[in-house]
Every structure is written in structure tokens, then in C-alpha cells.
């Protein structure tokens, strides 16, 4: 019943995909005409603003980032806890953004969103990004090394967030703030922890998989598993750092993406490490 109610609400918001772009995506572009679009998806508890500073390191790129309900400017809106519903909602909106060559990038939960969105776009619209970059998330057929978090008691849930390392410790120690954020955080974890993965469909675009060398959430072996889900080239790149290595390594990540997309847009689809 809750899913039906939320779906109806989302349909009202997204009456026309072109009009819904500003609701669902932030455009951080600092120039007028990018050669392509980098469409970014956040990790659990993250928002669009984690990608705001990326545009300074991308000279030919429009940076678009997903604005999920339940955080930032959409804080008062219900959190989406069903990945299938999210993908169905996003697909026609993202289709409207794909009038230029696109890269999908997602870190942690965002990697799963980007991957499932790519599969949906190929199946229902016959189009896909030029490149899919999955970062800090195990290949989707694998079970998490950690127990499911979304239904844990508050104290245990907060303790697990410390271990992930992505939430500022001062926030976790401030009970009033945590109480405000808990519904969003639980909702995000529920979305990827309860997702039922169907391994039957691969993607037709290359996959570039990124991992942190000290990441205990998704290690190199977990990330290498993505190779089986592309019909094209696969590249694996490691970075110094733990699960949230992108917070410090994003300039290098941006450089890699721009180099790879330069090859694609010039008609030479190949990876350069």
C-alpha cells in the first residue's frame, strides 16, 4: 500500500520528464557547453552536493547529480526505500538528459542505482551511457560483508555508521541531528539491502570499477566481480583510502573519466588507465 501511494505521488511530481529534471537533478556545470554529461548518484546518506566540487576538475563536462528525496532541498519529502520504484521514476527523466553522450557514476549505493538504471534504459529505451563507473560497491550478486543495517536498533545502527566512515563523527554524536537523519539513512540502506538482484541482464557499455585499497566494505575481489556484467571493456582501478576514498581522490577520478570520454567522443572507444 505504501509503495502504491508513493508511486502515485511521484507520478504527480514527474508529469513531464523535461519539467522534472530540476526536481531530481542538480546541474553543477560551470561552463556553457559540455561535450558530454556526467550523471552522478550518491552513496547512502549522501546528497547531490557531494559532487558539487567535481565540476572544477572537468573542463569539458556537465556535472549532473541526483537529488534524492529526504535530504538537502528535498528534506521534507518521503524517503524512497524501493530501488525498483526509484529506477522506474528516474528512467524517463534521465532519458531526457541523454541527448548528449553520458557517463553514469555512482559510489556505494549509487553504484547499484547507476547499474540498475543502465539496465533499465537498455531494456526499455534501447539506449545506454557511453561508460558506467561503479565505485566502492561489490558486484551485485555478492552478499554484503556486513549484517543488514536498516532495521537495527538506534545505538547499533549508529555504531555501524562509524565503521563505514562516511558520516562526520560530530554528527553521529549529536542525538538531535541523528534523530532527524535516521529515517533517510535507514531508508537508503533498506533500498540496497532489500534489493533482489536478477543476474540475467548484462550491459552493453564498458564498466570502469573503482575501489579503495583499504576498504573493508567492498575490497578488490568484490569489485572485480563487476566484470561479468558488461559485454564491452572492463577496467579496474584502485585508490589509496578506505570506503570513502572518493572524498579525497575525486580529482584523479575526474581526470580518468574525462580521458576515457575524450576517447569515446572522438570515435575511439578504449580505456586509458
From TrEMBL:
Q: Does the keyword NAD apply?
A: no
UniProt keywords (A-Z) are: Hydrolase
Q: Which Gene Ontology terms cover its molecular function?
A: hydrolase activity
Q: Which GO terms describe its biological process?
A: lipid biosynthetic process
The record, for Gene3D superfamilies, names: alpha/beta hydrolase
The record ties this protein, via InterPro entries, to: AB_hydrolase_fold, TEII, Thioesterase
SUPFAM superfamilies for the chain: alpha/beta-Hydrolases (SSF53474)
Task: Report the Pfam families cross-referenced here.
Answer: Thioesterase
Report the family membership. Belongs to the thioesterase family.
Q: What protein name does the entry list?
A: Putative Oleoyl-(Acyl-carrier-protein) hydrolase
Q: Which organism is it from?
A: Photobacterium gaetbulicola Gung47
Amino acid at each position: 500500500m505504501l509503495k502504491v501511494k508513493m508511486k502515485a505521488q511521484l507520478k504527480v511530481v514527474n508529469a513531464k520528464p523535461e519539467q522534472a529534471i530540476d526536481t531530481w537533478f542538480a546541474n553543477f556545470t560551470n561552463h556553457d557547453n559540455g561535450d558530454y554529461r556526467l550523471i552522478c548518484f550518491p552513496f547512502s546518506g549522501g546528497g547531490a552536493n557531494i559532487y558539487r566540487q567535481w565540476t572544477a576538475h572537468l573542463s569539458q563536462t556537465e556535472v549532473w547529480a541526483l537529488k534524492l528525496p529526504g535530504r538537502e532541498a528535498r528534506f521534507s519529502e518521503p524517503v524512497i526505500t524501493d530501488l525498483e520504484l526509484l529506477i522506474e521514476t528516474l528512467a524517463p527523466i534521465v532519458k531526457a538528459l541523454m541527448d548528449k553522450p553520458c557517463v553514469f557514476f555512482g559510489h556505494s549505493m549509487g553504484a547499484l542505482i547507476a547499474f540498475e538504471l543502465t539496465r533499465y534504459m537498455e531494456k526499455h529505451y534501447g539506449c545506454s551511457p557511453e561508460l558506467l563507473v561503479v565505485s566502492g560497491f561489490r558486484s551485485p550478486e555478492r552478499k554484503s560483508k556486513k549484517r543488514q543495517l536498516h532495521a537495527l536498533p538506534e545505538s547499533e545502527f549508529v555504531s555501524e555508521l562509524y565503521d563505514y566512515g562516511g558520516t562526520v563523527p560530530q554528527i553521529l554524536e549529536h542525538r538531535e541531528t541523528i534523530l532527524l537523519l535516521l529515517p533517510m539513512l535507514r531508508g537508503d540502506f533498506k533500498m540496497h539491502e532489500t534489493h533482489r538482484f536478477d543476474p540475467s541482464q548484462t550491459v552493453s557499455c564498458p564498466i570502469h570499477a573503482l575501489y579503495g585499497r583499504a576498504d573493508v566494505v567492498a575490497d578488490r575481489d568484490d569489485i572485480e566481480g563487476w566484470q561479468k556484467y558488461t559485454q564491452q571493456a572492463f577496467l579496474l582501478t584502485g585508490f589509496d583510502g578506505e570506503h570513502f576514498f572518493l572524498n579525497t581522490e575525486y580529482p584523479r577520478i575526474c581526470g580518468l573519466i574525462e580521458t576515457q570520454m575524450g576517447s569515446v567522443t572522438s570515435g575511439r572507444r578504449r580505456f586509458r588507465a
